[in-house]
Amino acid sequence: MENLTDSLIERVVDKKDTLIERVDKLVRAGKAPREWGSPFLSTTPTSLAARELAAQVEALENAVREIAAEVQKLSAKG
């Protein structure tokens, strides 16, 4: 799972971007456009809603990891 997460972060994130830009890209990677299949629509089947919410949770976890790595890097410099 770690390698998959690292791979996703490397694909989505350009290290030249600011931390805010990197986190925004990671969070957007887990979001699908709101249409049929969105967990926010009452007509979405439960299995699709659960899958979409799981993707969003994974994207947020990746964003938190990116923030933690940046904080760790900055604290090591300080």
Index terms:
single chain; mainly alpha; 78 residues
- Percentage beta strand: under 5%
Mean pLDDT: 75
Q: What multimeric state do the chains show? A: single chain
Order of helices and strands: HHH
The tally of strands reads: 0
What portion of residues is helical?
A: 55-70%
Major β-sheet profile:
none
Q: What overall form do the CA principal axes indicate?
A: elongated
Number of helical stretches of at least 4 residues = 3
- Which blocks of ≥5 consecutive residues have pLDDT under 50? none
Structural class assignment: mainly alpha
Radius of gyration: 15 Å
Question: How far from one another are the termini?
Answer: 31 Å
List the helices and strands and how they pair.
Layout lengths: L1 H11 L6 H11 L16 H32 L1
Helix pairs in contact: 2-3
How would you describe this protein?
The chain is mostly helical. The chain is 69% helix and 0% strand. It contains three helices and no strands. The chain has helices at residues 2-12, 19-29, 46-77. Helix 2 (19-29) packs antiparallel against helix 3 (46-77). The model has no long low-confidence stretch (mean pLDDT 75).
How would you briefly describe this protein structure?
This protein is mainly alpha-helical and 78 residues long. The protein has helices at residues 2-12, 19-29, 46-77.
